[in-house]
């Protein structure tokens, strides 16, 4: 009986010692298979994202993708051009012609398509398509409490996947429920106010989306100032970057 009691006590002491030792060191972190992987760095993530002013961007990867080309200084040809809605600072036939080649595919909403001529793919909110191997998703973009972009007008934002990175361009939109459901690595969000979200509202959208990095847009031309972009960057709870306009 004494031997059994001694063995039991010894086993209990061994367990206590093991627990005390384990408390002093941290178990190695394990990532869930669905958790976002750590970015190699924001610079690496953004090296293929160029802001061309206002709401215009050029994304490079497997293909060269332009979104809402406007007041372009570049003539680098596009593989794909995405246009969010028919307003002239987003749907600009003159700017499209600068970068449109024989094999360029244009994807846009029904209100912009007639202005461009030629072969155009018309998209609507909720559509998911693949163009030249590039995955494109259309997200509703509209105003709440403003009349500039009613939901029924059919404006969209886009999620474009290039180099395995999901890039969300919100178009001209307020902070919507559909926006909250977006999951993207990079979020390009209007922050200039008046026709879209202001800086504070755009920050709330960024915090809901939780991208690896958020970029303010729709400022510096037509509406919005650098101060709006700076306020956005200051208020964001996720990493934020203000991009400088690319001229080439």
Structure description:
With 248 residues, the protein is α/β, with parallel strands linked by helices. The protein has one domain (41-235): Ribonuclease Z/Hydroxyacylglutathione hydrolase-like (Metallo-beta-lactamase, Chain A, 4-Layer Sandwich). It has helices at residues 2-23, 42-46, 93-99, 113-116, 177-180, 199-209, 226-235, and strands at residues 49-51, 57-60, 64-67, 80-82, 105-108, 121-122, 128-131, 134-140, 156-162, 165-169, 186-190, 213-217. Helix 6 packs parallel to helix 7. The longest helix is centred in the N-terminal third of the chain and has 22 residues, at 2-23. The radius of gyration is 24 Å and the shape is globular. The N and C termini lie far apart (88 Å). 40% of the residues are buried. Mean pLDDT is 85; it is low at 1-39.
Question: What's the overall geometry?
Answer: globular
CATH class: Alpha Beta
Query: If you consult CATH, what is the topology?
Result: Metallo-beta-lactamase, Chain A
User: Residue-averaged pLDDT, rounded?
Assistant: 85
What string gives the helices and strands in order? HHEEEEHEHEEEEEHEHEH
Annotated CATH homologous superfamily = Ribonuclease Z/Hydroxyacylglutathione hydrolase-like
Distance, first to last CA = 88 Å
Query: Biggest sheet: strands, sense, closure?
Result: 6 strands, mixed
Tally of DSSP helical segments: 7
Helix content: 25-40%
How would you classify the quaternary structure?
single chain
Radius of gyration: 24 Å
The SS-based structural class is alpha/beta
Number of strands: 12
In CATH terms, what is the architecture? Answer: 4-Layer Sandwich
How many domain modules? 1
| Poorly predicted segments | 1-39
In which order are the strands of the major sheet placed? Answer: 1-2-3-4-5-6
| Proportion of beta-strand residues | 15-25%
């Amino acid at each position: 009986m004494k031997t059994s009691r001694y063995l039991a006590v010894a086993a209990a002491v061994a367990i206590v010692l093991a627990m005390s030792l384990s408390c002093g060191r941290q178990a190695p972190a394990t990532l869930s298979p669905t958790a976002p992987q750590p970015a190699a760095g924001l610079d690496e993530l953004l090296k293929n994202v160029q802001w061309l002013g206002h709401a215009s961007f050029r994304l490079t990867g497997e293909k060269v993708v332009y979104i809402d080309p406007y007041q372009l200084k570049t003539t680098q040809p596009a593989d794909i051009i995405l246009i969010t809605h028919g307003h002239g600072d987003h749907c600009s036939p003159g700017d499209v012609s600068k970068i449109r080649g024989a094999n360029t595919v244009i994807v846009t909403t029904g209100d912009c398509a007639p202005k461009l001529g030629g072969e155009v793919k018309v998209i609507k909110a909720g559509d998911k398509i693949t163009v030249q191997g590039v995955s494109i998703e259309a997200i509703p973009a509209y105003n709440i409490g403003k009349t500039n972009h009613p939901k029924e007008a059919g404006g969209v934002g886009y999620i474009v996947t290039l180099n395995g990175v999901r890039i969300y361009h919100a178009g001209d939109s307020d902070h919507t429920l559909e926006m909250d459901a977006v999951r993207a690595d990079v979020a390009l969000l209007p922050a200039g106010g008046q026709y879209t979200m202001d800086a504070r509202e755009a920050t709330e959208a960024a915090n809901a989306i939780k991208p690896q990095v958020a970029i303010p847009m729709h400022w510096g031309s037509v509406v919005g100032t650098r101060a709006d972009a700076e306020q956005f960057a200051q208020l964001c709870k996720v990493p934020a970057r203000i991009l400088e306009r690319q001229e080439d």
